[in-house]
Every structure is written in C-alpha cells, then in structure tokens.
Design goal:
Elements lengths: L1 H36 L5 H19 E2 L8 E2 H4 L4 E4 L6 E3 L9 E5 L6 H14 L8 E6 H7 L3 H11 L6 H9 L3 E6 L6 H17 L8 E5 L14 E5 L4 H9 L9 H9 L2 H6 L3 H13 L8 H18 L1
Helix pairs in contact: 2-4, 5-8, 9-10
C-alpha cells in the first residue's frame, strides 16, 4: 500500500513539477544559446536561415484588409500582376519574372496599383525556392521605416534578420551578398520623409553600384510617379510600370473571394460589367479591393453612378481603411 502511494507521489512530482521545470530550463537555455550559435558554421544555414524564411513568409504572406479581422493570405487572393517594360510599351510580363532576368529594376505605379503586393509576390517566389541551396533570400524593406531608423543599409539589414529570428547574422549576410543571393526589395520611395530621403537615396545608389556586377544581388525599388524623378536612372537596368487589371484579371481576383449568400462573385462581376465607368475604375487593384470588400462585408450594393461610387469609396478610405 505504502509502495503504491510512494510510486503515485513520485509520478505526480515528476509529471507536475520536474517535467515543467525541465521544459522551462530547456526553453530558457535555448533562448540564451540560440543568439550565440545562430551564426555558427552550418547552424546558420540549416537552422537560422529556415527560421528567418518562415518568419518572412508570415510577414509578406499576409495582407491587411480593414474589413477582415483575420486578414488575408496573399496566396489565396493574388492575381499575377503584370508590368510594362517602359512607359507605353507593348511588352508586358509577370512582375515575378523580372527576378531571373533583370538585376536592378525601378517599378513605378499609381497609388493602389499593387506595387507593394508585387514586391511581396517576388518575396514569396524567392521563398518557394530552396533558400538553403542557391535560391534568393528575400529582404523586404519598407523604405519609410528604414529612413526613420536612420541607420545604414547593412545595419538595417542585420536588424531585419534579427527581428525575423536570425540574430547575429552579419557574417552570413556578407556571405549571401558575395554569392549574389539576397533579393533587395525596397518598397515605397515616395513614402520616405523628406528629411530622410537624401540619406536613403544615397544608400540605395551605393547598393546599386556595389551590386552592378553580373553576379550581384538583385534590387527592386517601387515608387509612385510623383516620388521618382530618375534618381537611379544611371544605375538601373530598366524601369517597369504597373499595368492596370484587365477584365479577365478582375474576374479572377473576385473569383478568389468567398461570398455569403445571396451574394456571389458572379453577381459582382455582372454588376461591374453592366457599369462600364465603375469597371474602368476597378482596374486599379486597391479600388477593386475596396469594392469587393464593401460588397462582401456590408449590405451595400454597387452604386449606379460614378459620383455615388466615389462617395462610398472615399467614406471607406476616410473611416475604416484609414483607421486600420
């Protein structure tokens, strides 16, 4: 009897005290040791880099939408975004295809044309490759935040790696750059505060010069037309311009959403097709996102006039979208 009680007592102590204590000690030790060993030979490539890639996949793979509390997954709603190789050019391509063909590209587009989504799609394309092998490691940098940080590019790069589960990555970053394997995705030149803009532009020019050799790291920079006046024209290989959605892309985009009865994607497409002036506006991805969100999440139907449509969209931008 006493033996059974003693055994039960020992088992209880082990289960409810020793096991949690050991788990806590192991977790604490791992947290303390990981920053130290993350840059070690092989550990950086086999452990730290996959951790970084997993974190980046979460960062760039989710899109914010004020109408959806849970947000959206890029892979669920993404429609291949095309760009024109030159203003007014008839040569179009999927923006993701630039990665293997051009090293330095300026991507220019109107507000809401999908520039940020395009860069995130390029990042996801990199992540689908084997980053531990010879694939590109994406580095997505919102330029406004970098400008406010006020540190040089390599320091900011190390901070971004650290923030994404790869501390002390300086040495490995240098190795990746020597191999031409970092894809620098620089988003929002037009959004930089004027007090920081000359510093950021100077840093980007230095990066483009340093990576100008054949095996250099690719760099893609986005901006609205008003924010780009040729600061990198002597250092880039091409300027690409965001294309508007085609009617087919509009239908594909709407088809990627779920609707609650009695509303359907087919009904929304039909409503847009019957309103040519509104359909024209919805060739802009942001405007189409607003329209689809309003149609899906509210009791509203599509307005018949362009004036009424703009009023609805402005109200949405000034309240829910801006607040988010």
């Amino acid at each position: 009897m006493l033996g059974a009680v003693g055994l039960a007592l020992i088992t209880g102590i082990g289960k409810y005290f020793l096991v949690p204590l050991l788990n806590w000690a192991f977790t604490l030790l791992s947290k303390r040791l990981y920053p130290i060993v993350s840059s070690a030979f092989l550990f950086n490539r086999l452990v730290a880099l996959p951790k970084y890639c997993k974190s980046i996949r979460t960062t760039v793979g989710r899109l914010r939408n004020p109408w959806l509390l849970e947000g959206q997954e890029l892979r669920d709603i993404f429609v291949p975004v095309s760009v024109s190789r030159g203003l007014g050019s008839s040569e179009h391509c999927d923006v993701r295809h630039l990665l293997g063909t051009l090293r330095a590209v300026m991507i220019v587009g109107d507000p809401g044309s999908g520039k940020t989504t395009a860069l995130k799609a390029v990042a996801m394309t990199c992540l689908q490759q084997d980053a531990r092998g010879s694939g590109y490691v994406p580095l997505y940098i919102p330029l406004r935040a970098w400008g406010l940080a006020g540190v040089d590019l390599m320091k900011h790069t190390e901070e971004l790696f650290r923030d994404n589960n790869f501390p002390n990555a300086g040495g490995y970053i240098k190795k990746l750059r020597r191999q031409g394997r970092i894809a620098f995705l620089l988003d929002g030149l037009d959004e930089i505060d004027e007090s920081n803009k000359s510093f950021v532009v100077s840093q980007i020019r230095t990066l483009l010069r340093e990576e100008s050799h054949t095996s250099g790291c690719p760099a893609y920079i986005t901006s609205r037309p008003v924010g780009y006046d040729g600061q990198f024209s002597d250092l880039i290989q091409d300027t690409a311009y965001m294309d508007d959605f085609t009617p087919t892309q509009i239908q594909q985009f709407i088809g990627n959403w779920d609707f609650r009865a009695p509303k359907t994607g087919a009904k929304l497409c039909q409503a847009l097709l019957s309103r040519p002036s509104i359909l024209l506006i919805c060739r802009n991805p942001l405007m189409l996102t607003i329209v689809t969100s309003l149609y899906r999440e509210t009791e509203d139907q599509l307005p018949d006039s362009r004036d009424a449509f703009y009023k609805v969209c402005i109200q949405a931008l000034l309240t829910r979208w801006d607040a988010a």
